[in-house]
Each structure stands twice: as structure tokens, then as C-alpha cells.
Amino acid sequence: MKIGGVILSGGKSRRMKSDKSLKKINNIPLIEIVLSKSMEQLDYVFINSNNLEQYNFKGMKIDVVKDCMNGFLGPLVGVLTGMKWLKEKNRDFTHLMSFPVDSPFFPNDIVFKFSTYKNKYQIISANSSNRNHPVFSLWDLKLEEELEFSLRNGTRKIDEFTRKKKTKVVKFENFGYDPFFNINTEEDLNTAESRVLERDI
């Protein structure tokens, strides 16, 4: 199995009022934190963004891909975009791992834990504190046509799609706070900054 990773950063960042991917924790942009952590787990990672034209990280040019459907329709479109890009990039890819750009504290072994269920489920996603986090999911690329059909027929929320599929939810423990804490506002950013001292990002 060959897995590619997509960092979902295609939204308008309305509550942040500017591109959240470039907001910084400990003077490091969120996009670089998530890139670094995801690239430690996967050989190939790219960015889904409608704001960034290109991105260089540690001397590497990271592929940046815009949504395959217009209208800022949400992260599910980013997942479809990722599926299409991987198939175009290399037909050997079988799965897509999605990471949101606004959740920098995710586990360092999330891909490993998800991949253990790859042969039994179409989608594997995260849960913590009895709350699902479907933006963190491992997707079988065979779902591409069904996902595109659903999107073109009005599906927007990820769980609207995943609950109709063979899905495994993997639970993760909190480390004094939710590892899937997401940053939507400046207040959230300040909270995240205070947590850098508690756990290395």
C-alpha cells in the first residue's frame, strides 16, 4: 500500500480573518508544523490550498493544488482534490491521508495506527474525548467516483459521506488536552502557543 498525504488548507479562514496556514506558533507557521509532522510519517505530502500559489519547505518545493470544484465547498472537496491529484501523480498510490492545517498537535503515529486497519475498512478516522475528527482520515482511493457524485449532489460535511461507508474510528488519548485541538481564532492561537511548552510540536 502506498499512502500520500494532503494538508487541507483550502478554506477562507473567516474567523481568523487572514490565511490561518501562515499563522505562527513558537514563530513557526502552522503549515510548516503540519508539514513537518506529516512528512515524518509519509514519503509524499502536498497542500490543498486556494490561497497559496507555491510553498517551499526546508529547501523542497511542496506541490500546492487548488480545489477541483469551485466555491470553497469545504474539506470534503479537498479530500476529492487529493484523491484526483494522487492518481494523476502516480497510479501506485492506493490511499490518501488527510490532515487539517489548523490542528498541529496530532499524534506522531496516527498514520501507522490507521494503516493497521487498511484491509478491512474504506475509511479510518480519529476520535478523542468521545468526539470524532473525520478531517483526520485515511481514505481508500477507490472511493473517488462515489465521493465526487456525493459532492455534486449536495453533500458537504465529511461525516455525511463517511457514515454511509465501511468506516473504522480509532480512539486516541488526551495528553492533558485534546491532540486534535483545532485553531480557528486568535484566541485559539494563543491557547495553542501556551501548549508548546507542554508538548513538543
Please give a quick description of this structure:
This protein is α/β, with parallel strands linked by helices. Helices cover 27% and strands 25% of the residues.
Spans of at least 5 consecutive residues whose pLDDT stays below 50 are none
Largest sheet: 7 strands, mixed
Strand order of the largest sheet: 7-4-1-8-10-9-11
Q: Which H/E pattern describes the elements?
A: EEEHEEEEHEHEEHHEH
Distance between the termini: 28 Å
Number of separate helices: 6
What is the percent of helical residues?
25-40%
Instruction: Assess the beta-strand content as a share of residues.
Output: 25-35%
In total, how many domains does the architecture comprise?
1
CATH superfamily: Spore Coat Polysaccharide Biosynthesis Protein SpsA, Chain A
**What is the mean pLDDT?**
91
Name the overall outline.
Answer: globular
CATH class: Alpha Beta
Radius of gyration: 16 Å
Within the CATH hierarchy, at the fold level, what is the topology? Spore Coat Polysaccharide Biosynthesis Protein SpsA, Chain A
The helix/strand class is: alpha/beta
